[in-house]
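Good morning C.,

I know you're traveling, so I'll keep this short. The sequence:
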Amino acid sequence: MFRASRHTPAHAIVVWLSLGVVALIAYGSLYPFNLKHSANFDIWHTLSQLSWARAGRGDRVSNVLLYAPLGFCLFLCFDGRVSRTFAASTAVLFAALLSLGIEVAQVFISSRVPSLWDVTLNTCGAIAGVGGGIVWRALSGRLSRTDAGAARGDRAAWLLLFLWVAWRWAPFELQVSLAKLKAALQPLVDPQIEALLCAHYLVWWLIIAQAIFAVANRARVTESLLALIAVTLIGRLFFAEPALIASELLALALLLPALVLLHRLQSMPRRWVLTVAFTSLFLWDSLAPWRFASSAGHFDFWPFMPWIEAGMPVELVWLLQKIFVFAALGWLLKGIGMSPRSVVYAVTLVVVAIECAQLWVPSQSSSVTDPALALAVAWCLLAMDNKSRAVTRPIARSR
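The tokens, ready to paste straight into the viewer:
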């Protein structure tokens, strides 16, 4: 039973993720923490107060979804230390006991209705999470890591990861409340999946995964990717609205299978596939709905003029998304072999060409703002590349 599997034990990243999920569950289940004091506490009497009361559909779905990440993370924690069967059983048992303990605690919170149905649904969620962990472990074992950590000094990749998190967390409006947590799960109760939006998120996450592959330790690539996924989603729970997007979660479910298929290609063809996919979606968004007028519209030669006229309100989400998109385009072009200086010209010219084409798209506005942003971002990538070269350049031996 205690025979270790072929996989290495979980990194501390997964342990911290498990603790974070437990803390999130405790917060969502015990808030507002006003437990009633009982002088004569009797565990059997308390257990007898647990009923089989059924909640609404939304609460039932939430109970399953809340424990799925716990089962996923716990399985990854135990797998590699014990046999896979024992790891799965332990993860489910731990989740079930945690759920039971929380329901017992809810007996002493007047605003809560403790129910054994919640324990059942929580356990089902943990089982689903364990299943996801088994699939994740199996697919990650098929993932080629030959290029992992090959460019740990790539500052542009680090910048791309930072911009991704910043954009996804924007507008940075901190909200810590039970209502916020329930609202975050609401889109998953009645999910609305958009194929095009799912494709966007899948391509974006594939690019982020490649950036992680470039800079992460080879042995911890998948754990690093998992950590960034968790950081992004948990950050959105507290800072962004809507917190969770059904199309993105579907894209995340497809991410690892897509990575396995993508890594069957050699390094350069893989980079070309990502570049073509990203550029195609970028062009689609820029010229949508692809209905062109017979005459050209107005071109604004003053950058950020709409902001200036409106008193400089910063549209942070829009701005960070633009910066991320331009940085991703530059990083991809550099990856397919363009020189850093050529990347500056290429990114700027592509954005200028799009702005010119938007003159004939009635629903789009043409301005010098995007080309100015693209030029600034491309120059930042060039400066970072020069610094990276200076740091990694070998020091000549003294004669």
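Safe travels,
E.
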